[in-house]
Amino acid sequence: MILIVDDQKENIFSLKSLLELNKFKVDTACSGEEALKKILKNTYALIVLDVQMPGMDGFEVAEAISGYSKARDIPIIFLSAVNTDKKFITRGYTSGGIDYVTKPFDSDLLLLKVKNFYRLSEQNQKLNTIQKALEDEIEFRKKAENQLQALNQLLEQKVAQRTDELQKSNIELEASNHELQQYASIASHDLKEPLRKIQVFGNLIRDRFLDDNEEGLSYMNRVITASERMTSLINDLLSYSRLSVDSLFHTTNMKEVIENILFDMELIIQERGAIITIGDIPPLEVIPGQMRQVFQNIISNALKFFKKDIPPVIEIKAETVAEKAIDALPAPGGGYCRISIRDNGIGFNEIYLDKIFTIFQRLNSREEYEGTGIGLAIVKKIIDKHNGIISARSTEGGGSTFIMVLPIRQQLNSSKQ
Length: 417
Description:
- The chain is α/β, with parallel strands linked by helices.
- It has ten helices and twelve strands.
- Strands 2-1-3-4-5 form a five-stranded parallel β-sheet, sandwiched between helices.
- Helix 5 runs antiparallel to helix 6 (214-242) and helix 7 (254-264) crosses helix 9.
- The two termini are 80 Å apart.
């Protein structure tokens, strides 16, 4: 919008008509005082200001406008029919005007100037708006950066605090584990000693005094069987507790480990008439004693949970894969080894897959198949400690396949050491 300031109404009328004819929005003021009031309330793109006015003249109005932060950048065109000397024109420019037009003026020339200055004013306002937006954005980013720095400092403090807490907790846990290990060893020794006596004297009583007493023989056999089961349970619990103790990883010939297990189990293998085959297995970086427990438990289960009148058949084979996944595709030169142990035993329903790796969980009654329900829990804990995974595939009556995937090389001998 353009503001026309002139004390002569006829001048205002003619100039307003010219500008409105050219589709400019126009506001008017008949004195300098009125103009200043309107400038405070409204926003103008251009001011056409008469120089000679009663009260405040045009120069005084322009100087007053320059003191308003809101209006100091509004372009001013002076119009004057009286003050046409060079000194007045000079004062017009020094007081803030961008042009000085003398009356009578050429309408086309004045209109051309108005259009140019109006356009420049609008562009300047847009630039000011953009600049203001940029300044606001810069200020916002500075505040955000300061807040982010403060949050980072707080986060670093919390991480340091949490790290310190975890270190203290680890120290306490290590001490607790050591105490628990000592307690488990002492408790197992103290428990196994009376059980051993129960078994020894139970066998003596049975063999020497109960040959002719069937009822007493039955009761004593139950006592001996229960004590043997308790001894197995104590041994398994002790093995499970020892898995928390750090051990060293070594590159190990796994086929040799399995063959040693089979040598130790030779009697039960012959008794069951079992057939066991072992494929090639690459050397793995493992804790040898613990991996022996893994294969011994799984092979023992395969020999235990067999179908009556059908000799157990156990097949152990391995292949390298590129990722730690049960169903990963074979990949020569991969960083992981997948070992499968397949049997032709009684199998199980896979809905119980998670249950079989939980401590003290059994899928069959103790009367049918002996065991403590700890063996596969030990296997799972060992595989976890070796940064591997284990699962199984099975159907009831269709045998089982236990599948484990282990790193061929432990990273920096494992972070768990």
